[in-house]
Amino acid sequence: MEYYFADRKSNILGVGSTDGKGEWRIDNDIETQSVDNRPAVELSLDIHFTNDQEQAVNEMAKATNFIMYQDEEGNAHQMVVESVDHDSLGHIHSIVASDAGNDLINETVGAYKADKPYTIADYITRFTNDSGWEIGVNEFPKNVRTLEWTSEESSLARIIAVAKDFDAVLSFGFEFVGTNLVKHVINIRHETASDSLISFEMNKDINNIVTHLDTYDMETSIKAYGAVPESTDGSTNQDPINLVGYHWTDPTGQFVLDQYGFLHDTIAVQKYSRLLSNSNPNPTQSDWNRVKTFDSNSQAALLQAALADLKKYNHPNETYDIDLVNSPYVPLNQTVHIADENQQLFLSAKVLSIERCRANHSVKLTLGEFAHETVNFDERLSDLANQMSNISKTVQYYPWLRYADDDKGTNMSVFPTGKKYMAIVWSNKSSVPSDNPADYAGHWALIQGKDGANGVPGAKGADGKTSYFHTAWANDVSGQSGFTVSGGDGKKYIGTYSDFTKADSTHPADYNWALFKGADGNVGPKGDQGLPGKPGADGRTAYAHFAYANSQDGKNDFSTTDSNRKYIGFYSDFTSDDSTNPSDYSWSLIKGADGANGKDGVPGKAGADGKTSYFHIAYADSSDGRTNFSLDTPGSRKYIGSYTDFTKADSNNPADYSWQLVQGPKGDTGPQGPQGPQGVQGTPGSKDVPYPYVQLDAPANPKKGDTWWHGTSLKDATAVQRYDGSKWVDDAIAQAVLYIKELNSIILNSAEINSPNINVPFQHVRISGSEILSSGSLTLHGASYVISGNIEDNSGKPNGQIYHTEVNPDGLLSYITQTDGTTKMHTSRISMGVLELTDLVSGLGNSTKHITSTFNAHDAVDYYHKDSELETNDVKKLNISYSRKGPNVTIGIAFEMKTGNGWVKIANIRPGYSPFNSDDAARLFGSMSYTGAACELYVSAGGIYIIPWRGQGGYAGSLSFITHDAYPTNDAVVN
Question: What is the pTM of this model?
Fold first, then answer.
């Protein structure tokens, strides 16, 4: 960060930097913003100086001088130095500055009563008249109010009061041309009290959490008084408004207004009454009474104020001190989240103040307005587990879901639009839901009630999203064959995924697929309890088990039938009976503790309180999950792993999963069957006609000219010989044209092959130049030439790596994978004059991170251009040389100053050479004419700019940076 120091006339006196570059080194720079002190911004910093610089720093950074800088969000600031501490011995010059907008504190405005409704801009313009301030951004152009003030106050205090009445937030803005301030504006914006979606976790982002509880302001009933009404007869002896005689009924029954004007909380008094005892567990008297005064001008408004106050203080006050290790920048008044799973403490909080230090690259947040958040296991999964625990293990059940207008099933539909009732029935009849309302009798539940009257504004809810669980069915593991989302009757595979979109995806690739229906087993004997079918040749029947408990280890209130517990446990094995040992289960929290009532606020958009729990599944071929680990391809893998957490993405670490065997070892090979009987000997041919023998052993009593095909058939023959009258000699087939469907074990010498398809398989061959073995194939198909195969260990077993090289008219593609067989580790592609290289950085499967670079002819040459003897209003003898190779640009520049104007453009940047990041394209040039003088030069897409410290002398130098511009192909090329 660079800070520009200027006198009251905005003349630049020096430039300080937090990165140690430049003449002045800045340290401990702390910018402070707070909700209570808006729109003010405060800045403190230390300037380090030497003995030779002491006089200069006193002049540069003295009281009333300006500091100018631009923050990371692009906002320009002009600060006024308010106080100075100069340490000669320690060589540190410390200053405190405030936003130049605070100058309005020196203006006074009197009492004022509006004669009609005015906009917020009208009011602010009136109260800042002749101050030089203008209206900048205004997000309230049409809102009007009729306001009144009865006393004097500063102009700053008055415009802050105006903003409060309009529920607006003010900020000061500054516009510069060069170093000259041309406009200062007051921006008027809506409050952005949104959720930042940033969370801090104990022992990760948080060092410590200290909880404070007190009852100093607690109340269970309140006697409320409002404002004194205006007299209609001129009398001054008026009583303040109260709630005596006002009639109101709380629809929830919790709050009661009595005849004496007291508002009672009937639930809070039962918790905190002085009469509470074992013999009187639900007292209704002996409240914690408070008498309070509000500004309400009617009984209705007074009731709402009293009700909000009672809800706020009807429980002990709970505050927290949170020691953050470090935090990112979060705008004021946005919500963050705090989690301490050890205490089961989940909070939301608002950012009340920000301290940002650029020198130390740190941000310190002050948090407040804490509210409890509830973490719930997805209720649909919990309900599903409850129902599965009561389902016979050998019967397949399907969910039937329908919607209707009433609890009789009137106008029943598969769609919820416009329907008030919903029914879910588990059926073992068919996966296709019934359309007969009688099948859903007794299962209808109201999901949409009547619109209620507007209630008291409740606590502002945490922004959240509803998670949806989707299911589909198909006939193969890819989901492509027989895909459907309407029912799994007859399907073999089930696919699932979760997201925040209600509609089911129709793309099979969005689902994680698993086999849930194997081959039918033999029918067992009929009985009360059906038996699993006869196991297949290579597997056993797997069973899923659920249990419930009130502790994380499952030992407290363990049950396999009663789901009214805080934790759910799961495991799978090959035994139909549920285990009664809690240690066999993996436990997850499904019911959190009730949170305390939050602070009342404006109702927010309904959001799900808490966090979404996710159930993860993976597959492997070993009990630790490390062999052939996969997230989405169960295939023939023998083990299944699972775990539950609050992160949507599946973990790629096998250690995070609990593993269970789901496929037993392959059975031993059976004994070889007996040899079949000898076939009937054929009829011998004529003694003069050669006879073709097809057999493994040498024929007996051959005659000259007979042929012997070595094999059990012509298809698997490995050689052919002819008998010359005394012995068997190798023979050949001499034929101009052969029409043969299949050739085996043939060597072709000096042959021309005309074929669109050639396949050359190879096994356990050694890759040239290495000791690595490989099996695969070389294929020629049309215009594509492909070599693909796997990498093997020394014993010839595949290690999981796959390689692929392909040549086609478009170019060449080559890659090799990790041992999972899918994650590409190194990829290269040559196509149409471009070389593209990709390397794996981290991750496996769907959670990978790659880096890709490309190279073409332009990347290999240097582009060059020079502009000479240019002149502007501010500089002369301006020479600029441009050089570029790839994305790297170097600009050499020399000029002489004509004026001392700062932040002025001296040249347009040449196309093909503009910087990608303007913050990196700046440099301080030393003067070639005056000792100690310098000029700041920076380059942006708009041009080349200078900030000189002196309006005379010559300057020269160069700077380098990165560009993303297209290549300047019309410039000179240097090979």
Answer: 0.38
